[in-house]
Amino acid sequence: MTTTVIQSDNPKLLQQTVDCLERGGVIVVPTDTVYGLAVLPDRPQSIERLFGIKSRPANVNLPIMVADKSQLRDLGAQLGPEALMLLDSPLVPGALTLALGVDRQASPEWLQNREEIAIRIPDDRFLLQLINKVGPILATSANRHGNPTPNELAAILEQLAMPPDLAIDGGVIDTVPSTLVNCHSQPVKIEREGVISSATIDRILHAQSR
């Protein structure tokens, strides 16, 4: 199997990407943080292939990208006051990942075994268009598990254990990890400091109490 490579400025990019995902494909896509591997969440075989392509342990859950807060509610995400403050801040859309609890009575079938999800609203026009077309996607960094994520497509395809179905070439991009804030835990804690500093997170979370 070979990977279909398409340039990010191709006028047929959106439709080809939608078609690939809906056929159960695994894609490589540039994001506002790093290149990512992505699939639709209700395709178990696609998810299994993504784990194989990345050589990622199957017990490590995949983050979810959504387009807006309404999609979060459709997932049954539990939005406490801290999560809402961060979602309503200038940091979103952007490089901010939130860990949230899940209401299983309100969540889709593919989330029934999850007690917590990691979500992000990307600051990327193409990704937001894509997610509005296909719904939330599972997305993780496009690297072999445990390795750094390359900043250009050729090195990514060389590193992955198996070829993905479609790869979007967005050129060389800055590889900046998102900041991960766990809003499911109490108190809220920063589990990974990325491009957004902990001081910025603290300033937003404590603004209401001043």
Q: What does this molecule look like?
A:
By secondary structure, the protein is an alpha/beta fold. It has 7 helices and 10 strands. The chain folds into 2 domains: 101 residues, DHBP synthase (Alpha-Beta Complex); 86 residues, DHBP synthase. Helix content is 28%, strand content 20%.
Question: What does the secondary structure layout of this molecule look like, with pairings?
Answer:
Layout: E1 4-7, H1 13-22, E2 27-30, E3 35-39, H2 44-54, E4 64-65, H3 69-74, H4 81-87, E5 96-101, E6 116-120, H5 125-134, E7 137-141, H6 153-159, E8 166-169, E9 179-182, E10 189-192, H7 198-205
| Superfamily (CATH H level) name of the largest domain | DHBP synthase
Total count of strands: 10
Catalogue the unreliable spans. Answer: none
Basic shape: globular
Q: SS-based structural class?
A: alpha/beta
- What fraction of residues sit in β-strands? 15-25%
Instruction: Give the CATH topology of the largest domain.
Output: DHBP synthase
Return the string of H and E elements. EHEEHEHHEEHEHEEEH
Q: Strands of the largest sheet, in order across it? A: 1-8-2-3-7-4-6-5-9-10
**DSSP helical segment count:** 7
First and last CA, distance: 58 Å
Task: Sketch the major β-sheet.
Answer: 10 strands, mixed
- Give the overall pLDDT as a whole number: 95
Q: What share of residues is helical?
A: 25-40%
Radius of gyration: 17 Å
CATH class of the largest domain: Alpha Beta
**CATH architecture type of the largest domain:** Alpha-Beta Complex
User: How many domains is the backbone divided into?
Assistant: 2
